[in-house]
Each structure stands twice: as C-alpha cells, then as structure tokens.
C-alpha cells in the first residue's frame, strides 16, 4: 500500500515491463525510436507540459493514431498500461503528453483527484431543477404550474402548451417524479 492508502502499482508495472520485454512484438508497448519521433512531431513542448497539437477528440483530449495521445505517450516513454487501468494527469491539462505528468490509476482515483483539485463536474443527472443542463423551466414556473393545476380550471395539455414543454413533462412535474425538490 502507498502512503495515501491507495494500492501502489509501481512494482506490478515493473514486472509487467519485464514480461513485455520478453514477448515477441513487445505486446502493446511501443518503443521504436521512429514511433517516438513520429509522436513528438505532433508535440509542442512548453516549460512544463508537452502539448499535443495533433488531432483531438471529445472534451479536449488528443488522439494519437489509434488511441488517446496521453495513453500513447505513457506507452512510448514509460511502459505498458495494465488492463483495466487508465492514464491520468497530474497537471490537469488534457492535451498534456509529458510522461512526467502522467500516472496509471483507476477511474475512482481519477475522480477523487478531480474532486480534491476542484475540477470535478458533477454528472448531468445529479443536477436538479434550474441547475440541470436541459431545463426549460424555472422553480417559480414549476410552483405556479402545480398551484394552478391544484386549484383546477386548467388541464395538463393547456399547461404544456403554455410553458412550451411536453404533456409527459407536465405530468411528471405534477406527480413529483421530476422537480421533487421544489415545494
């Protein structure tokens, strides 16, 4: 166990490197000098980070031929990645491929690290009411909708038209399947 209580993968990685070096084709570990040069041709080195300037994919990460650029950098310059683990950043720069800024860890370690550094964005499903990314209504509108329907004289269809939402949305609001946190 490491000092922080997390499992220390370093001895396992050393053994895996030794095993990979014995296999023909070297497993998924790419060590060819030409591959490293090809990779570095897509990198702009700053004082701290090595920024991937090649193609990218979702949320700002780089894409190096067949995988995420930071994973490729780790394999090229550090060693193989154990099955089920991911490559995380110490520096919080998604396009960084500096091997000194990368470490192998689990998804839960990555999330814990993000929370500690204040860069964790809660999942979209955990946001409620007006904080939800797809909301069309305000808290006041939901309260008014419930009050007006409760006193009678207006249908769910009419509420849906008035507020620009679907009838099932109105039904879910009135039955407190959604917006349940609003009184």
Structure description:
The protein is of the alpha+beta class and 183 residues long. It has 2 domains: 112 residues, Alpha-Beta Complex (Homing Intron 3 (I-Ppo) Encoded Endonuclease, Chain A), CATH 3.90.75; 50 residues. The chain is built from 7 helices and 7 strands, in the order H-H-E-E-E-E-E-H-E-E-H-H-H-H. Strands 3-4-5 form a 3-stranded antiparallel sheet. A two-stranded antiparallel ribbon has the order 1-2. Strand 4 and strand 5 form a beta hairpin. Helix 6 crosses helix 7. The protein is elongated and about 75 Å long. About 6% of the residues have low confidence.
Characterize the overall form.
Answer: elongated
Tell me the number of strands: 7
Helix content: 25-40%
Compute the number of structural domains.
2
CATH top-level class of the largest domain = Alpha Beta
Report a brief summary of the structure:
The protein is α+β, with helices and mostly antiparallel strands.
Strand and helix map with partners:
Layout: H1 10-22, H2 33-40, E1 43-45, E2 50-52, E3 56-57, E4 61-64, E5 67-68, H3 69-77, E6 86-89, E7 102-105, H4 107-116, H5 139-151, H6 156-163, H7 167-174
Antiparallel strand pairs: 1-2, 3-4, 4-5, 6-7
Which characteristics define this entry?
Homing Intron 3 (I-Ppo) Encoded Endonuclease, Chain A; 38% helix; alpha+beta; 183 residues; 7 strands; three-stranded antiparallel beta sheet; 2 domains; two-stranded antiparallel ribbon
């Amino acid at each position: 166990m490491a000092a922080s209580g997390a499992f220390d993968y370093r001895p396992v990685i050393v053994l895996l490197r030794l095993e990979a070096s014995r296999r023909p084709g070297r497993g998924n570990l790419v060590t060819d000098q030409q591959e490293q040069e090809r990779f570095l041709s897509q990198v702009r080195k700053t004082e701290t980070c090595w920024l991937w300037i090649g193609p990218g994919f979702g949320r700002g990460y780089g894409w190096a031929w067949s995988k995420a650029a930071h994973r490729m950098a780790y394999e090229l310059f550090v060693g193989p990645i154990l099955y089920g683990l991911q490559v995380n950043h110490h520096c919080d720069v998604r396009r960084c491929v500096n091997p000194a800024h990368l470490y192998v860890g689990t998804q839960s370690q990555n999330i814990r690290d993000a929370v500690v550094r204040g860069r964790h964005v809660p999942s979209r499903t955990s946001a409620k009411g007006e904080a939800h990314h797809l909301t069309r209504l305000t808290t006041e509108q939901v309260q008014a909708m419930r009050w007006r329907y409760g006193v009678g004289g207006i249908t769910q269809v009419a509420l849906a038209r008035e507020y620009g939402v679907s009838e099932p949305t109105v039904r879910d609001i009135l039955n407190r399947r959604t917006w349940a946190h609003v009184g």
